[in-house]
Structures are given as structure tokens and as C-alpha cells.
UniProtKB/TrEMBL annotation:
Pfam families: Ni_hydr_CYTB. The chain crosses the membrane at residues 12-35, 55-72, 84-111, 144-164. It is a multi-pass membrane protein. This is Cytochrome B561. One of its GO terms (molecular function) is heme binding. It comes from Xenorhabdus khoisanae. Its cofactor is heme b. Belongs to the cytochrome b561 family. Keywords: Cell membrane, Electron transport, Heme, Iron, Membrane, Metal-binding, Transmembrane, Transmembrane helix, Transport. One of its GO terms (cellular component) is plasma membrane. Residues 10-180 form the Cytochrome b561 bacterial/Ni-hydrogenase domain. The keyword ATP-binding does not apply.
Length: 186
């Protein structure tokens, strides 16, 4: 098992966090769109938002760990075959994904705590409210939350398509690397 990234490989911690976050992002997107359609009498009317908020707090923790881990264990070098366009666009896309994801998590927190209520995380612990600007806070954060959610889904799908293009057209190890494969092994 390779924990840290090397100059040619992603270690298993980065791989695990990458796929866990990807799964959580698509799951949370579906859950978020579904829960706002529920009627008051649905059994999931309260449960779905509680689940959405609890997972969101965990996702924030995982993303914070991810950023710290990126400093402790920097990602592998770009492949020599990458064009300048690929190098620059991948940096911009990865940076945008990080920023927009944090934007979603922070705006979600601001919507949930606008009324001054703490967020209960699976009933295990609470995250207290901080900013509680009644009225405008929940509305503004709500708009940012929804638009950023769509942006992250669209950008991550394009990013996934780029990874598939590397795998099937360029036939390089970009995608395999994100599954922890060793590029030096034939
Ligand atoms: C919500 C979904 C996703 C998010 C938020 C996301 C985010 C990211 C980020 C931030 C990185 C950069 C990692 C770093 O350098 O620290 C990355 C790398 C990568 N992602 Fe994703 N990703 C998502 C989905 C996918 C999907 C669906 C695929 C493939 C089908 C994929 C394939 C890859 C690959 C191959 C890399 C490594 C690129 C390289 O070696 O430079 N990702 N992803």
C-alpha cells in the first residue's frame, strides 16, 4: 500500500479521497434536488435535509483534510506527453473544483444556520451558527449553493470526460493513476 503520492503516482489516500468526494458530490446533488420536491407529509421531509446537512459537514472535513494532505503529499508531475493546453487547463479546472466545492459547503452552512440554529450532525455533535443575518443570508446563500452545485457537476463531468479521453484516445496512464496504478509496472 502506497500512502503518499510520489512524483509519478497517486498514493492510496489521495485516490480514496478523490473517489469518495466524487461519489459524495453526485450523491449530494441528487439528494439536494430530490429533497426540495418533498411535501410536508412525506416521511423524508425532515430526514432528507438532516442527512444532506450531516453529509455536507463531513464533506467539509474531508475537503479540509484533502487540502492539508495536498501540501504534505503533492500530486505527481504531469506526464511528459501533456501539451501546454492540457497542463494549464488541468491546473485551472482542479483549482476551480476546489474553490467551487468549498463555496457550496460554506453556502450550505450559511443557509442552514441563518435562523441561528446549530447543525446537528447525525445527532452525534453540533456545529454552531455564526453569521445569522435574517432574511437576506439564507436567500443569497441559497442562490450561490444551487448555481455552484450545477457548476461543480458540469465541470466535474467535463473533467471526467477529459480523463476518459486520456484513457481511450491518448492511451496514457492519467486515469489509471487515479486508481492507484503503478505506471512503472508493465
Ligand atoms: C464531483 C466529481 C469530481 C471532483 C470534485 C473531482 C476533483 C478532482 C480534483 C480536485 C483533482 C486534482 C487532484 C489534485 O491534484 O490534488 C482531480 C484529479 C483527477 N480526477 Fe477528478 N474529480 C471528480 C470526478 C472525476 C471523474 C468522474 C473522473 C474520471 C472519469 C476523474 C478523474 C480524475 C483523474 C484521472 C485525475 C488526475 C489528473 C492528473 O493526473 O492530473 N475525476 N479530480
Amino acid at each position: 500500500m502506497l500512502l503518499k503520492n510520489t512524483s509519478t503516482r497517486f498514493g492510496h489516500i489521495s485516490v480514496l479521497i478523490h473517489w469518495l468526494v466524487a461519489l459524495a458530490v453526485y450523491g449530494m446533488f441528487g439528494l439536494g434536488l430530490w429533497m426540495v420536491t418533498l411535501s410536508y407529509y412525506d416521511t423524508w421531509y425532515h430526514r432528507a435535509p438532516e442527512l444532506h446537512k450531516s453529509i455536507g459537514i463531513f464533506l467539509f472535513i474531508v475537503m479540509a483534510v484533502r487540502v492539508i494532505w495536498r501540501f504534505i503529499s503533492p500530486p505527481p508531475k504531469p506526464l511528459a506527453s501533456y501539451s501546454l493546453f492540457t497542463r494549464i487547463s488541468s491546473i485551472l479546472v482542479h483549482l476551480t473544483l476546489y474553490i467551487v466545492l468549498f463555496g457550496i459547503l460554506i453556502s450550505g452552512y450559511l443557509i442552514s444556520t441563518a435562523d441561528g440554529e446549530a447543525i446537528s450532525v447525525f445527532g452525534w455533535f453540533e456545529i454552531p451558527a455564526t453569521l445569522t443575518e435574517q432574511g437576506i443570508q439564507a436567500d443569497t446563500a441559497g442562490v450561490i449553493h444551487l448555481y455552484f452545485a450545477w457548476i461543480v457537476v458540469v465541470i466535474s463531468l467535463l473533467h471526467g470526460l477529459a480523463a476518459l479521453k486520456h484513457h481511450f484516445i491518448d492511451r496514457d496512464i492519467t486515469l489509471k493513476r487515479m486508481f492507484g496504478c503503478n505506471p512503472d509496472k508493465k
